[in-house]
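Office hours follow-up: a student asked to see two folded examples consecutively, so here they are.
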Amino acid sequence: MVSKRGAAMSLNCVALVVAAGRGSRSGEGIPKQYRLLAGQSALRRSLELLSGIPELKAIQVVIHPDDLEFYRDAAAGFDLPAPVFGGATRQESVLAGLMALEAADPDYVLIHDAARAFATPALIRRAIEAGRDTGAALPALPVVDTIKAVDTAGAIVRTVDRNELRAVQTPQAFAFKTLLDVHRRAQRDGRNDFSDDGALAEWAGLTVSTFPGEATNIKLTTPDDFKRAEAMLRDNLSDIRTGMGFDVHAFGPGDHVTLGGVRIPHDQGLTGHSDADVVLHALVDAILGALADGDIGAHFPPSDPQWRGASSDRFLKFAVERLKARGGIIANLDITVVSEAPKIGPNRDAMRARIAEIAGITPDRVGVKATTNEGMGFIGRREGIVAYAMATIRLPAS
């Protein structure tokens, strides 16, 4: 859920979300922080988490200038300051974010990687408490595998004592002014090669403490990481439901019909209060039915003039947002169109792609089928079109 920043906070703490990396190893050709996980990007999941923590006075995001459109989609609906453009390294990006937050005069700051989308509120609160107590603290996990040091040829040199090792995560918590001063000192010294703020703090001679991290707080980097993340999401969404939707519209004057969000040339149009897209209307009812949340007419009554001629993608987006607000995802959408004409087959893939785009899922989760009514009834007389839809959704177990 989107949460607004409160005016009065018991602790003057802010969060800095680092989202300026290119993430090329994740696959799909887009930065990993914007790649969708069950319909939501890693960045948006991180923002939802942080927005639910009332102790945070502000959330500042650092992005790459090429990602502004991606960012706007991910941050839609959040009460955030304008994003800051990052630099060539993570260290430069963090400094840019800290400088943007300086005017707010915070006491503490959490530095969090956007690609760690599965941190919990408990971890965020541990970070805030550890930062307040020590001034520099990192979430860390014991290393469970045996660790070997190797030479340049890959031959083992020695076995490292894993009891002395920890795998660190984010969010990392610091006294704000101290961290900003350390970043500026490193900039003056020409040092921009630190992999995280903990390493920078060590270089500056600060004592850095650790607090318990979370095994599920994985950093999304490779395609395998995304597969693991999808599996984690599915495991948490064990309430599986199915809803059914139905819609019918009559033909009238016109030169096209809109089906599944796709404009299809035809010698007639479909009549209705909105754009009469029977496919999207049926899908809306299917999703709302699975949620036990009324129907399209309850949320968008035909008596309301504001919906006259409205594009039905707005209705489907609304239903999807209702689902997301309950922590759910779409597992599958399946549509059957009953019509003598126009032919659905040549437009099937375009419809699947458009429905997937509106719903924030991949096309392989959308089925579009078509049949005629064998010349019988009002469909057979080419007086209208019918669409049936099924939606399978997953919700968190209650």
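And the second, which I mentioned at the end of office hours:
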Amino acid sequence: MTVLSFDKDGVDVVYQATEFRMERALIEEATGTDFRDVTDHEVLKLVEPDPDLTGEPRRIGDILQAKNSTN
């Protein structure tokens, strides 16, 4: 299972027991999209070769907004 944790500067990833950071600029370059408009599914596709994409994709901007409203 892959775990993604989003913040305004990028994504912390845990994939196959390995933790690493994907910076905002890397994600924007890889997707050709503004960071806040990239979806969690798109990030997961960058990490995993064949991800299990269940549920509706969520924009990073929406994830960050929801995260900030609970703090």
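Two things to take away from it. The helical segments are 24-31, 40-47, 60-70. The radius of gyration is 12 Å.
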